[in-house]
Amino acid sequence: MTTLAPRAGRSCHNSVNPLHSTVYFSPDLDKELAGVGIDDPRAAYFAGRGAAMGAVGPGVIAAAFYNFSYDLVARHVPAVWRVASPEAVLDARLRAVDSTLRRVLGEEAVASDEMAEAARLALRATEACTRHARPLYAAHADLPVPEQPHLAYWHAATLLREHRGDGHLAALLSAGLDPVEALVSHTATGKGMSPRWVLGTRGWHRTDWDAAAGRLRERGLLDGEGELTAAGTALRAELEEHTDRLDSAPYEHLGAEGVERLTELARGFLAAAVGAGGFPDDLIGKG
After folding, report:
1. What are the beta bridge partners of residue 228?
2. Number of Cα atoms under 13 Å in the Cβ half of residue 108
3. In the structure, what pLDDT confidence band is assigned to residue 191 with cuts at 50, 70 and 90?
4. CA 117, 123, 129 angle in degrees (round to 5)?
5. Which of 2, 23, 91, 193 would you call most buried, defined as having the most Cβ atoms within 10 angstroms of its Cβ?
6. What distance lies between CA 169 and its chain's CA centroid?
């Protein structure tokens, strides 16, 4: 196993992770969850992502997801589990993943040797993931690996996503960023969700956003125009470096050649999904 290039693991994650996320923007997920009685989009997201943890309460969801308002979560959890069991939700989610990937990638890609190879590589990377202090990863790691390669690849992408995500929350806590401050500062990088998407989906209000921006300005991390200062840019960079350190094991285990190949395959699938309209046009940005 050769030494990984700097940030190779992050680059691989950034290529693999978005295909996992397509299901949360897919009408197929809404359709499948509506079929088991969950017809509110926000309840669908909390259930769809949280079901692996079982019929947990709002505190667990808010803690594990980090950047959602507890009040928003509590409007839907635990009530959603009285509508559909976590097991029913997981089955519905996998059906939605199947139909979504077939639609945004095409049947040829789903059945391709490249998909099978990507699944093998991604699953190999997950062999080095660890459960301790990673609740969302650990919950998903207890789920069976689907047999079909495109579903196995999505499952592995989910494990890699939640493994890095759980570590990122530790980095956010270490940096002293609360949920809204994390969102505001990430949006200010130009790579995070737009304020419209944050305020429309995370349960926060404009007053929450403005107050968080004020706290970041007091710390010298944000300027009067809402842009990151040099200190803010440095903090966001250190956050990612901290997350890289906590998430290095899967990619070191896969090795340089494996990481390079998985990144290449994942970028091809991602380009196809983007071209097929798998993501909202206004999802990312400062506007």
Report:
1. 222
2. 1
3. confident
4. 150
5. 23
6. 12
| Nearest CA-CA partner of 109 in 119, 121, 124, 95 | 119
pLDDT-derived band at 20 (thresholds 50, 70, 90) equals very high
Burial of 174 (0-12, 13-18, 19+ CB in 10 A): exposed
pLDDT value at position 282? 62
CB contact set of 79 (below 8 Å; sequence gap of 6+) = 43
> How many angstroms separate the CA atoms of 137 and 124, rounded?
15
Is residue 1 scored above 90 in pLDDT?
Answer: no
Residue 144: is its pLDDT beyond 70?
A: yes
Amino acid at 92: A
Distance (Å, whole) CA 158 – CA 17: 7
Q: How many whole angstroms separate alpha carbon 235 and alpha carbon 229?
A: 10
- For the chain, how big is the Rg over CA atoms in Å? 19
Beta bridge partners of 193: 284
